[in-house]
Amino acid sequence: MKAFVRPCGLLLAFFLAAHVPVQAAYPDHPVKVIVPFPAGTATDTVARYLFQKLQERIGQPFVIDNRAGAAGSIGAAAAARATPDGYTLFFTVNSVVTINQFIYPKLAYDPMKSFVPVSLVAAVPYVLVANKDAPYKNLQELISAAKAKPESVDYATLGVGTAPHVIMELMGSLAGIQLRHIPYKREGLTAVIGGQVPLILQPTTTVLPLIREGALVALGTTSAKRLTALPDVPAISEVVPKFAGDGWLGLQVPTGTPAAVVQRLNQEVRAVLSLPETAERFGSFGIEAWPSTPEQMRQTIEADSEKWSRVIREKQIAAQ
Questions:
Q1: Cβ atoms of residues 317 and 166 within 8 Å
Q2: How many C-beta atoms surround the C-beta of residue 196 within 10 A?
Q3: Crossing angle of helices 2-24/259-273, nearest 10°?
Q4: 320 pLDDT band (50/70/90 cuts)?
């Protein structure tokens, strides 16, 4: 019996040794990260910082693959089709997995079924900004002007059904005002700076420098409390109770990716997000690190999907 047990024990040890290093070695070659927006955008900038830090920690390259178009849907579809082996990741924004499904009649991905959450990465507040010569210098003045003459106040976005459009519709409903939406394909922010349109809602990552330079006037932020980067600018909820409209960035992988890979990525992302350097870097963008478990990210996606679907239905927003 002893003679039999000893070879079996050796076989078991060999089996375990052959399988444990496979997971421990992940990743053992470069990893592709699909970012569904162009290089140089806020999403891309944060992704490049995060994955450079992961590369330094893990020792394998993380290669950014920008797949822009259709409000992030092109990149999402590419990620959904990828082999679920941990070597294609999807760096997403909230609108791609919570808003697009209610705007576009046909998507080449399912926001809830095509991906597995890894971790939230950052909360990204938006700032409602006005042209420096606009007649209102704070949010209450804007609301008063809009109430006095409905649909007399315009705001720009980068298109129907984009996150800023839906968020502005929510703010208008809660404030009891009707603003007029002016969709642009590219140059909405330029139009506001130039005075063609008075208002636009933009992420902090885009407009903080312009506010500091005096090119734009900040009226309010979508954050729950005032931002450290803009301490004199009220949260919109201070003037419009019950309003909340922050965006966020997060990491997902194609469904079917091994659980051990998801766990490893979650641990490494959370480690990077806990660095003092990350807090400083994110703070310069006006955003805040937001590490989570995969389950917490899933719950956030579900809650946001329900919230924005109500706004989209009530306002009858549809792709044009």
A1: yes
A2: 15
A3: 50
A4: confident
Closest by CA position to 311, among listed 228, 244, 220, 212: 244
Would you state the pLDDT for residue 24?
Answer: 54
144-159 pLDDT, tens digit each: 999 999 999 999 998 9
Show the 3-state SS of 142-199. Answer: HHHHHHHCCCCCEEEECCCCCHHHHHHHHHHHHHCCCCEEEECCCCHHHHHHHCCCCE
91 close to 63: Cβ distance less than 8 angstroms: no
Tokens of residue 56, six digits: 């330094």
Residue partners of 198: CB distance under 8 A and separation at least 6: 130, 131, 134, 135, 136, 153, 154, 155, 192
pTM here?
0.87
Which tokens is 256 given? 């079917």
Token digits of residue 191: 């139009």
> What are the start-end ranges of the H helices in the chain?
2-24, 42-58, 73-81, 94-98, 100-103, 139-148, 163-175, 188-194, 204-213, 236-239, 259-273, 276-285, 294-315
**270-279: average pLDDT:** 97
What is the structure's pLDDT at 14?
41
Average pLDDT over residues 101-110: 94
* pLDDT in the model for residue 8: 45
- What spatial distance separates the first Cα and last Cα of the chain, rounded to whole Å? 76
